[in-house]
Design brief:
alpha+beta, Cytidine Deaminase, domain 2, 5 helices, 11 strands, 35% helix
Length: 212
């Protein structure tokens, strides 16, 4: 079921004008999934709004499409800062539900670069990271929330850095730069999650490799 939805998103990636998203739900003891598709106002050009996690929430999947718009250009082909925050919130909601499968959750991204995933590596760090996002930090003599500071850093260290170093590079080179700068940014967060990239074999089955 999840693989089928991934394949549909891959097919739609160059024509969709909004993100696409689905949450896959199961019990703590089985791997039989049902799909809750995100629709309506919970989808936009550059956002997917997932509902609060329930006990059966296990895998979240969304797509960064490849369609540009005059105001925003194209969405970056890697996780956004908000996606990383969302993974921590996903875990915290599962913990608040007392769900025993909370460390088994996964967030998957489909983009023009390929497939990425976030998985829990250190649950204690995930919770600490989540709790830190609304603390105050001082940057450039200004007080702001940590999540705002990290969004600022993401824009500078991932998006702007790619634009600066890319110049006249090919689409593939630009995607590789986005990935490299995102990995570098992600590794500074100590978010408690591990970043993976998927590779398909000749049968179309995926294997996942950690990026660091």
């Amino acid at each position: 079921m999840i693989k089928g939805r991934i394949e549909q998103m891959v097919e739609d990636i160059n024509t969709s004008t909004t993100e696409q998203g689905s949450e896959f739900r199961t019990t703590a003891t089985t791997n039989v999934y049902s799909e809750h598709q995100i629709t309506g106002e919970d989808l936009g050009f550059d956002y997917t709004k997932f509902p609060d996690a329930i006990s059966s929430s296990r895998v979240r999947l969304h797509m960064h499409h490849n369609t540009a718009n005059p105001e925003n250009g194209k969405i970056q082909p890697v996780f956004s800062a908000e996606d990383v925050f969302g993974m921590a919130k996903f875990y915290k909601q599962k913990k608040d539900n007392n769900d025993t499968d909370r460390e088994k959750i996964t967030s998957i991204l489909v983009s023009r670069r390929g497939l990425y995933a976030l998985r829990i590596d250190d649950a204690e760090k995930v919770e600490q990271f989540y709790e830190s996002l609304n603390t105050n930090v001082v940057y450039d003599n200004k007080v702001m929330k940590k999540y705002q500071y990290l969004q600022f850093r993401y824009n500078n260290e991932v998006i702007e850095a790619t634009i600066k170093y890319c110049g006249t590079c090919t689409d593939g080179q630009e995607e590789a730069l986005f990935e490299a700068f995102f990995v570098k940014f992600f590794n500074t967060l100590d978010s408690g999650s591990t970043l993976f990239q998927a590779f398909a074999d000749t049968n179309g089955d995926y294997s996942w490799q950690a990026l660091n």
